[in-house]
Design brief:
Layout (H helix, E strand, L loop, with lengths): L6 H12 L3 H12 L8 E6 L2 E7 L4 E6 L6 H16 L3 E6 H6 L1 H12 L4 H5 L2
Parallel strand pairs: 3-4
Antiparallel strand pairs: 1-2, 2-3
Length: 127
């Protein structure tokens, strides 16, 4: 059974969607294009007591974009807890810094695609 999201978390998630950073906006524009391929992403997805920047729930993939604040000790601790939460729930979590998204979008998207299309026995044998 899904855990109910508090009104506070729902409001915080909505506020984050409404104040997306430029790197978040740029990545979101690309991730939305993958919906036709069956990869539905959500922005600022609440899972447990955390809000993740992007989530493809069907593929159990979470994506976080890290800005300068992620170097601060308090944020490092929060990020470690988010990583643990994701792992404990069976999600794969990818982290990119904002500069990567702005300067190497193609590389970021290729990296995400690897996790959306993991190798199977069938396509490994074809290599």
């Amino acid at each position: 059974m899904a855990k109910r999201i508090s009104n506070l978390m729902r409001k915080r998630s909505q506020d984050l969607r409404n104040s997306a950073t430029t790197p978040e906006q740029k990545l979101w524009a690309k991730l939305k294009e993958w919906k036709a391929q069956g990869f539905h992403f959500r922005r600022q997805q609440t899972i447990e007591n955390f809000i993740f920047d992007f989530a493809c729930l069907r593929q159990k993939l979470l994506i976080e974009l890290d800005g300068y604040s992620h170097d601060l000790q308090q944020q490092v601790t929060i990020d470690e807890n988010k990583n643990l939460c994701a792992k404990n729930l069976g999600y794969r979590l990818l982290r990119f810094n904002n500069d990567e998204v702005m300067k190497n979008m193609d590389g970021v998207l290729r990296h995400i695609e690897v996790y959306l299309n993991p190798p199977t026995q069938e396509n490994i044998g074809a290599m």
